[in-house]
Write a structure and sequence with these properties.
The chain is mostly helical. It contains 15 helices and five strands.
Length: 337
């Protein structure tokens, strides 16, 4: 640890130092010697955010702070701290970490309402003043606002890093039954696009295989088969191997087998403060099919949707294709007999 005196002559506990960023390691705090703004941003590790959460949001926080271009280590540290708290909350409640989402004033207001409720009005005012400055600068001259065309939260897909965290959430439940039910939710909603009202009715005998592929037979009007995405296929196979053909994949101990059992179970789960929803898992499945360019009629059939209008929220989230000769060739080939 360096022992040179700081430029301003200040003394800190443990000897002369410059700026400190505190890490929590096995309940002990250790100081990290920081010499520059770039080092502060690169080396920053939050104290109160679990490592698994920081792995998801860390790069995004650093990118936003770099965009703010702090001129001193202390300013960088404060921006990192406040934006880490904000983005950690966004991620935990299910908001996207994309630039347009985190700079949206309504989402910021939701966060400040949460802070006001759990930490008090004075803390909320302090957060509001600082974050409004940050968000205004990040958003640019025209801050985005929610409109009637804004994609609802339940239609926003999870990112790949979030899906990995969700897989860990299912595997990290404290009992075998809880792990089984959590796996059933992610495999049936995220892997096969089932609604909560549908996944709760699936039995072992409803899982069908064809070669290396597995799909779920869903009762409905009309009935359908919902194929499994590769990411969740092994999870569903493991569930099948541990479920009797006459048994339901999602186990309930008592009461009526209703869709409300799914969010009620998720709300009781442990292990991480980030919890998925069946709605967004299904939305992620549909978004994956849309982004893969599958025919609309196939998506409607396998998702149990009745109208192509239902795909509008997912089409709105697709990136714009470049106007390249490759695009021209694809359109040209579509018209060939």
């Amino acid at each position: 640890m360096p022992d040179t005196a700081p430029p301003d002559g200040r003394q800190t506990r443990g000897g002369p130092q410059t700026h400190w960023d505190l890490h929590l390691v096995d309940s002990w705090r250790i100081g990290v010697f920081v010499r520059s703004v770039s080092e502060q941003i690169a080396e920053y590790r939050p104290v109160r955010v679990p490592a698994a959460h920081w792995a998801v949001i860390g790069d995004r926080v650093r990118a936003l702070v770099c965009e703010l271009d702090p001129q001193t280590v202390e300013v960088a540290r404060m921006q990192l701290m406040r934006l880490t708290q904000y983005l950690a909350w966004c991620w935990q409640v299910g908001y996207s970490l994309e630039h347009a989402s985190v700079t949206n004033p309504r989402i910021l207001d939701d966060y400040l309402t949460h802070i006001d409720r759990v930490q008090g009005r004075a803390t909320a005012r302090s957060h509001r003043d600082k974050l409004n400055v940050y968000i205004t600068r990040l958003a640019g001259p025209a801050r985005p606002t929610f409109s009637s065309t804004q994609v609802p939260l339940e239609n926003q897909p999870y990112s790949q890093s979030e899906l990995t965290a969700i897989s860990g959430w299912a595997a990290g439940q404290p009992t075998e039954r809880w792990r089984h039910n959590a796996s059933a939710i992610v495999a049936l909603a995220g892997g096969c696009g089932l609604r909560a009202s549908e996944l709760i009715q699936v039995r072992g005998q409803d899982l069908h295989t064809s070669g290396e592929r597995i799909a779920v037979h869903v009762d409905g009007a009309p009935p359908r088969f919902a194929p499994t995405l590769a990411f969740w296929e092994q999870t569903l196979r493991t569930l099948r191997d541990h479920t009797h053909p006459d048994e339901h994949l999602f186990i309930i101990e008592e009461g009526v087998r209703s869709a409300r059992k799914v969010p009620a179970f998720i709300a009781r789960t442990r292990g991480q403060s980030f919890r998925p929803t069946a709605e967004r898992l299904r939305a992620t499945w549909i978004h994956t099919l849309v982004a893969a360019g599958l025919p609309a009629d196939l998506i409607l059939q396998t998702a149990g949707l009745k109208s192509a209008i239902s795909l509008n929220p997912y089409l709105a989230q697709l990136p714009r294709r470049s106007d390249s000769p490759d695009t021209w060739a694809q359109v040209h080939a579509a018209g060939q007999p």
